[in-house]
Amino acid sequence: MAGTNRVFAGQLAGLPVYGPDGERIGRVRDIVASLRADRQPPRVLGVVVELATRRRIFVPMLRVTSIEPTALTLATGSVNLRHFHQRPNEVLVVGQLFDARVTIESRDAAAVVEDVGMEPTRTRDWVLGRVAVRERLGRFGRRGPVRVLKWEDVRGPGVLELAAEPQGAQQLVAVFDNMRAADVAAAIRDLPTKRRYEVADALDDERLADVIEELPEDDQKDILAHLDDERAADILETMDPDDAADLLAELSELDKNRLLELMEPEESAPVRRLLEYSSNTAGGLMTPEPVVLTPDATIAEALARVRNPDLTPALASMVFVTRPPSATPTGRYLGCVHVQRLLREPPSELVAGALDADLAKLPPTASLGEVTRYFAAYNLVCGPVVDETEHLLGAVTVDDVLDHLLPEGWRENGLWEATTDA
C-alpha cells in the first residue's frame, strides 16, 4: 500500500473512496477491527464504505491500495454490495472505541480515547497500534492534554468490555457533526444497541429529532422507548408534525396518549389533527406547516419566507395564499404562487397579483394513488390539501409520497444488493 505509515481513524472517517479508474464509489464511515483476548494491537479487517445510496458495505483492507490525506483508493476487482453487518468478534473503531474509558498503564491514570491510529506491519496487515487519549485530571475529571500512546500502554475496559462499561459519545458526535441527518441515521443503525443509546443521549434535541425522522420505524420506536417520557415528548415536539404523527401512530394507544399529554398543547394540536387521517391519504401525508401568506403580503415577504433554511426544497417551492387566519386550518383558501413566479415579479408587488387560483386541490381523503397521479399530472413537488369548506389544512410534498411508495424497509435494505467492479 502506497504512501502511509500511520493514519488516525478520525482523519480517515469521511474521506472519499475511489476505484482504480478514478470513479468515486463512496465515503469511509468507519474502520472494522478484530477483537483479541491478549494485549496485542487488534488487526484491522477493513473499512465500512457508504455508497451514494447510503448503503454501507464492507471493503477488506487487502482491497485498499492507497490511503492519502484526501482519499482512499481501491484495487481492481469486485466489491460486495451486501449491507455491512458487524460480527460478534468485531469492533467499529469510530463507533465503539471513541470516548471509551481507559487507564494509562505507566501512571495508573484515568483517560478517555480521543482517536485511534492504525499502522501497517511487516506482513502487510494493519493493526490498531496507537491510541490518542485525553487524561482526566483530579476528582472532577478536568480535561488534560492529549497523549498518543501504544495500544499496549493502555488497559481495560478497552474493546473487550465495551458492552458493560458506560461510555460517553462526545468524540463520536463530533464526527457526526458535519454529516447529514440521514447519514447519521445510517451510521447509528450499524452500532450496537448500547452505543446507539449513548449517541442518542449525547445528541441535542433538534439533532436527534432530525436523525429519528430518517430512521426506519422499528429503530424510531426503539430509541423513543429508551428516552425518558419527558425527553421523548420534547423530541416529538421538535420533529415535523407529520413525522411525529407517523411515529405516534405506530405506538400503543396508551403510549401514544401519554406522550401527547406531555407535549405542549400548541405542539400536540397539529399532530392530533394528522392522527385523525389514515397514513396513506393526503391528510395523513401532509405537513400542517406550509408557507402561508395573506393576499396583502408582498413578493419580497414571500421570498423571505421561502429562504428559511429549515424548509425542505419541496416545501419551499410554493407559497399558499389564504384569508386570515394563516395558521392551519386557515381562512378561505385563495390559491398558490410558485417560487419561479415569485422570482419573476417585482418585490414590491402583492402576492395576490401572482396567484394561481386554478391549480387543482387535494382533499384530505385523497388516496396515495390519487396523490401520486396528482403530482405526475401537474409536474409538482408540493400541493395544497383543502377541505370541503375551502380551508387549507396543509401541503403534501413529493418526498412524503416517495416514502410511502418505496418498498417497506427501503431505508435499511438500500436500493439494490449485488456486487460491482471497482
TrEMBL record:
<dbReference type="InterPro" id="IPR006668">
    <property type="entry name" value="Mg_transptr_MgtE_intracell_dom"/>
</dbReference>
<feature type="domain" description="CBS">
    <location>
        <begin position="355"/>
        <end position="412"/>
    </location>
</feature>
<dbReference type="InterPro" id="IPR058838">
    <property type="entry name" value="SH3_actinomycetes"/>
</dbReference>
<keyword id="KW-0129">CBS domain</keyword>
<dbReference type="Pfam" id="PF00571">
    <property type="entry name" value="CBS"/>
</dbReference>
<dbReference type="InterPro" id="IPR046342">
    <property type="entry name" value="CBS_dom_sf"/>
</dbReference>
<dbReference type="Pfam" id="PF03448">
    <property type="entry name" value="MgtE_N"/>
</dbReference>
<dbReference type="InterPro" id="IPR000644">
    <property type="entry name" value="CBS_dom"/>
</dbReference>
<dbReference type="Pfam" id="PF26205">
    <property type="entry name" value="SH3_actinomycetes"/>
</dbReference>
<protein>
    <submittedName>
        <fullName>Mg/Co/Ni transporter MgtE</fullName>
    </submittedName>
</protein>
<feature type="domain" description="CBS">
    <location>
        <begin position="286"/>
        <end position="353"/>
    </location>
</feature>
<dbReference type="InterPro" id="IPR011033">
    <property type="entry name" value="PRC_barrel-like_sf"/>
</dbReference>
<dbReference type="InterPro" id="IPR038076">
    <property type="entry name" value="MgtE_N_sf"/>
</dbReference>
<dbReference type="InterPro" id="IPR006669">
    <property type="entry name" value="MgtE_transporter"/>
</dbReference>
<dbReference type="InterPro" id="IPR027275">
    <property type="entry name" value="PRC-brl_dom"/>
</dbReference>
<dbReference type="Pfam" id="PF05239">
    <property type="entry name" value="PRC"/>
</dbReference>
